[in-house]
Structure formats: C-alpha cells, structure tokens
Amino acid sequence: MIKGERAPIAWALDTGIGRGLAQAVVNRRLLDWLGGVFFAFVCLFIAAYALVKPDYNWDMVAYVATALEDRYQDSADLHAATWKVISESAPEAQLYEIQYGNPYNKHQWENPADFQSQLSMYRVKVGYVWLMRAMEPVVGLANAAILLSVIPSLLVGALMLYWLARENALQAGFILAPLLMLADQAQMTSAVVPDMLLSLVSLAALYAFVRGREALACVLLFASVFVRPDNLILIFALLLTAVIFGWRVLPMLATFLASLLACVAISKYGGHPGWWAHFYFSCVKIQNSMAGFQPDFSPVAMLQGYMRGVVVSLIHNDWAALLALFVAGWALLNRYGRAVSSRQNALLFALVIGTIGKFASFPLPDDRFYHVFILGMAVLLVTIWKPRFDAAFSVNIIRSK
C-alpha cells in the first residue's frame, strides 16, 4: 500500500454507516446472541430438511425388516411386509434406487431368503430396533426410522448449544456450525441409520465427564453399546485414558467389562457372523447372501480392506482431515497458554485414540462412523479457545485509525 493511502477497512469505518456497524459488531452480548442463533438455525435447518426430504436408503430397508422380523416365520412374508412399509412412503425415484440402483440392491429385492440373511448385521443394534418398535404404534415404522435420526440431531444441537453457553463460548457457534456440516451431520440426519442416536448418547456421556459426573457418563456409555456395539471402542479409549491420566479406574473398568459382556451377548443373540466375515463383507467384497458365510482369513484381503478404507477416507470423506486439524489445534492451544484443564486434555486424548482405534478395528471410511469423535473434539476445542470476534474487531478498528 502507498504511504499515506488509507486501507479500505479504515475508509469504510469512517463513514456513518461504518461507525454504526462497528459499534454493533463490537458488542459482545449481541455477538454471543448471534453466534447462538446462527448455530441453532443451522441445526434446525438440517432437521427440517431431513423431515421434508428424508433419504430412503438401503439401511432403512434393513432396519425396518429387522423391526418386523419377530412377526414373520417365512422370509417371503417378511420381505413383502418390509417393502410394503417402504413403498407406502418412499418417493418413486428413491424406491427405484433402493430396489434396482445396483446389482446388490436388485438381488435383495428379488431374493427374500438372501435379503433376510443380511439382517444378522443389523439385529445387533438392539436398542435402536427396540425404539423403532416402540414408536411404531404412534408414527409407523417408516416415520419412526426417520425420526430416530431427526430427533437425536436436534438434541445433539441443543446439547452443544447448552455446552457453549455454560462455557461462555457462544461466539464459537459461528465456527462450530460449519464443522457440523463437514462432520456429515446433514447427511446423517437425512439418512436412516443409528449413528445420530449413538452420537447423542455418547456426546451426553462426554459432557457428563466434563461436568465431573462420572456415574452418569458410565451409564450412558453402557447404554450406547445397545445402539451400536462398536462403541465399545470409545469406552476402551476412555478406560485407557483413566489409567494414563489418573482418573478413578474402577468405574471405567466396570463399564468396559459390562459393555464387553453385553456386546458378546448381543452378537450371539443376533446371530452376528463375526468380525472377519463382517469385515470381508463391508471392506473387501459385498455378499448377496450371508447364510453360512465364513471366509478363510486372508492377510491379503485384510490389507486390501485397509487400503480401500484409507483411500476412500482421504478422497471422499472429511473425518481424517478434521482429525489432523483438531490435533494441530489442540497442540497450538497448549503451546500458546490457553487454559486447557487436565480433564479436557484427557478427553481430547481419548477421542483422538478412539478415532484411530475405530478405524484400526474396522476400516469403514464414512464420516458418520467417526461423527461423535469429531464432534466431541470440535466442541472441546472451541470451548477451550472461546473465540471472541468482538475483541478481534475492536483491535482492528484501533489499528485502522
């Protein structure tokens, strides 16, 4: 800039409108309010869109079938009842996609016995399926499945907004809202999967840890394995954290052992095919029938599954990049003297190793599988940072003069 020439921002702030806007912007109370309103608006918009345009996907079909399974002895009857529920509510284009969109979907649409064989991988979400059945008399199975994504999404947003308010960090809503989108919350809210419900229960447990309510946190973590048994990874990460950071180990050890026993019982009750068969199906080669599917263990196939997970995660998903960003942010906050408490450091450590452990145990690449880890890190970091846009704007005004 030429010496003596005024910066555009300085010129703008010298106008009457500019001075009025500057005074409004540097008002902390107003910016706190706007940060909260912006965050709430994004959460409400995501939920409203999901209600208007839900994603009738293959998983929805499988979960509806699982909820109906106890009423039908014959696979053909179950198949017909499932598709009746889906057909009555799904738009024509989405119905065609889940019936004929790819060879796997087409095969499941045309083969009732093979279709039922897939449900062994869905029955293990016993809490999620139970809630679908409980809501069915009021709203119907299809709507119950949709609402079990929408309602938890709203409650996740409400919990995070309350968290920001309690930590005096409402302006962080301007930052946290875009992070929700990058963490795939919009797609998770539209899709019919148990992951949003899992995120709600797990995030509530993390907040309970922040507030020092360990007993409540442990109860919530135990409940979470009935939504998705693989949340045992988060529980194990928190157990390791308790040992390393000097928390009371006994409550976390008891929670982990109880959850492990519950997972074993759920797997046996649901007829789950086992880790390797599920790994092969999800990460190596999809199977039209899971009846009696027990492939021989293959290190080559296992490596192929991990390589696929790495490539798809980096190219088509955001969780890995967000993990790297948050680790860097965590290091910078510690480096430059932010007041990071021992409890906050411990929870960030648990979420980082939990994210890595989740991928290491089963390399599924989709953002939704890491949602609670990413969201937990995001809200912890912004409440430590407590960004103040009013303070930053005040400094810029002074410098521009």
Automatic annotation (TrEMBL):
Keywords on record: Membrane, Transmembrane, Transmembrane helix
Domain of life: Bacteria
Keyword RNA-binding: no
TM region(s), chain numbering: 33-52, 141-165, 185-210, 231-250, 310-333, 345-362, 368-385
Record's protein name: Tail fiber protein
